[in-house]
Design a protein that fits this description.
221 residues, DNA-binding, Rossmann fold, Response regulatory domain-containing protein (chains A, B), alpha/beta, Sig_transdc_resp-reg_receiver (chains A, B), homodimer, CheY-like_superfamily (chains A, B), 6 strands
Chain lengths: 221, 221
DNA sequence: AGTACCCTTACGGCTTATCGTAAAGCAAAA
DNA sequence: TTTTGCTTTACGATAAGCCGTAAGGGTACT
């Protein structure tokens, strides 16, 4: 089993819960931080001291408070760590269950495990740790189909851009103007209407509000 | 200090974290449940056995799963317990920080403490327990102004309901119909328009799409 | 060139949303 | 009871969204 791990999780209660679970797994050195910057510094120092961490368990979202942070999210932390310490095992532990997000974490940063915070989250986390220790990637059942490219709708960058602008409160007219100014084609109101109509059909949405809400649920925007 | 307490919290990790904190407080009998119905049954049985719980620490929102539950939320649990066991101390521990909600929990059900799940949530929870043990009500700083009736610009359950229906793709007409069918007042199209207009202003949203997107970002829906 | 095809754009009708104003309903205070 | 103030409802005008049809503009192939 791992001997030295780091927990990065802003919420004290969850952090403590994870700690208790790791203890039961027989891990000896367990360190805890509530800020991403602290996580980075601890990992950096451990490396310099010649006693590096073997495993990082990190949340994705960290609430901001009065402490200024260079690294503001778990995703940034993962990217940074992956760059400088490619060998370290990383497990993300988050309430986030958006497939797109999970997929990008795996493909872009090569995390070793992803566990959803659910009722049985801790059980899964212990399973994930054992699995990752044996070099087998682990995904929670909720997101295990993230790597399965079958259910890919034909959503492209233009669609995402469109939905983003829509969710920011721009009218279709505004978006048309914005697109033509920024040389994004097609830019006409009619084309935008057409594309949105297609998206509504694809996502089985009744109207634009429903469409944007669905896109947010799916993690597209 | 209390000698017998119950923790009702669906998330395993948080439940475990609370448990560890209570242990450090020197509480001897700490029981844990992940479902509201279990909490009720345990409390009922303890009463019948003549060894009642002195303190209940409960979450407010419990995710539904395959297990059918009669009591579906922390609020319902609190109402039930208050009715049957008026002398039991109750502390709500939730991420919810809507003043209106906290206020109603205090005034309607007379809970003894309310602690927000934040970074330092556990520290506050231990403070709350000590305070409640000495019969002094406790409120997290985030909501300590809940009893101060100055703040009126609040989002209430009606607003949430409205935003939810909107995000599900119903038109304002549909919602009006739905509300009158389900006896939710006010239900007229005009009132719905007015309320949405107020919400748009409160959230600085350009239109309904923007409003729903913002509400989703804030986790209101 | 011609034509076949697809993507883009334009426009008109119809529906829904947004906004202002005003009337009706209701309850507490005078 | 009347007055007063607030909430809810009604309605009309303008704007935005939705939908079908058709015209314009490329590109590739014959």
């Amino acid at each position: 089993m791992f001997t030295k791990t780091l927990i990065a999780e802003d919420m004290q209660d969850i952090n403590k819960g994870i700690h208790a679970a790791l203890c039961e797994l027989g891990i000896k050195e367990i360190h805890q931080v509530q800020y991403c910057d602290d996580a980075y510094l601890k990992i950096k120092k451990a490396e310099l001291d010649g006693v590096p961490y073997e495993l990082l368990i990190t949340d994705l979202s960290f609430k901001r408070d009065w402490r200024e942070q260079k690294i503001r999210s778990g995703e940034e932390l993962i990217r940074t760590i992956r760059n400088e310490f490619p060998e370290m095992k990383i497990i993300a532990y988050s309430i986030e269950d958006r497939i797109q997000k999970v997929r990008s974490l795996i493909t872009s940063y090569g995390i070793n495990g992803y566990v959803c915070k659910t009722r049985r989250g801790l059980v899964e986390l212990t399973n994930a740790i054992s699995s990752v220790f044996e070099n087998i990637p682990y995904l929670s059942p909720e997101v295990s189909h993230a790597l399965n490219p079958t259910n890919d709708l034909e959503i492209n960058d233009y669609d995402i851009l469109l939905l983003e602008q829509l969710s920011k409160g721009l009218s279709q007219d505004d978006i048309s103007l914005y697109f033509s100014k920024n040389n994004i084609k097609p830019s006409s109101l009619s084309s935008i209407e057409k594309r949105l109509n297609k998206l509504r059909i694809d996502f089985k949405a009744n109207n634009a509000i429903h469409l944007v809400a669905t896109a947010k649920d799916l993690g597209l925007i």
